[in-house]
Amino acid sequence: MTSIRRLLHRRGFGIHSPWVYTLLRDVLFEPLPYYTFSQLRQQFPGRSGRQIAMDEQLFRLAHYASPVPVTIIGNASHSTIEYIRQGAATSRNQATTPIEKIIVVEDIEANHDTWQKYLDDPAATATFDVEGRRGIAIYNPKLSKLHYNV
């Protein structure tokens, strides 16, 4: 059942919030590369395609949300931290929706209790289970609390 829900919400389909739809379509699952991706890929060779995709996803999130910092919980590689730093550093725009903070929980299966804490937090208004690997909690007082499996 979870797989079907993920499929329905993938790339924003089945989501009624315009802000969340835009976040999924244009930020988290944007297929086009940013100009700095080739440089970052050369800086961190030998990573799997999955790891590159996950790092690039966090780059886009940090770029979109800047100046709000993206906080990582769990084991994050040096490349992941650098992608987030570069994403925030290259941003020239402020998020159009007032985001207070963003928490990313890596490996939500291993960090289940921590991820559950953010799922249960009423202030975490938008939570995303990204492919069962990564959890993203966004604190935005203008949103209603919703959880998405994407």
Walkthrough of the structure:
43% of the residues lie in helices and 17% in strands. It has helices at 2-9, 18-28, 37-43, 49-65, 78-90, 112-120, and strands at residues 70-73, 101-106, 126-130, 134-139, 146-149. Strand 3 (126-130) and strand 4 form a beta hairpin. Helix 4 runs parallel beside helix 5. The longest helix has 17 residues, at 49-65.
Give short descriptive properties of this protein.
150 residues; alpha/beta; five-stranded mixed beta sheet
Note the topology:
Elements: H1 2-9, H2 18-28, H3 37-43, H4 49-65, E1 70-73, H5 78-90, E2 101-106, H6 112-120, E3 126-130, E4 134-139, E5 146-149
What's the main sheet like? 5 strands, mixed
Total count of helical runs of at least 4 residues: 6
Q: Provide the domain count.
A: 1
In round numbers, the mean pLDDT is 87
The helix fraction, in percent, is 40-55%
Order of helices and strands: HHHHEHEHEEE
Strand order of the largest sheet: 1-2-4-3-5
Please tally the β strands and state the result.
Answer: 5
Percentage of residues in DSSP E strands:
15-25%
The coarse overall form would be globular
Please provide a brief summary of the model.
By secondary structure, this protein is α/β, with parallel strands linked by helices.
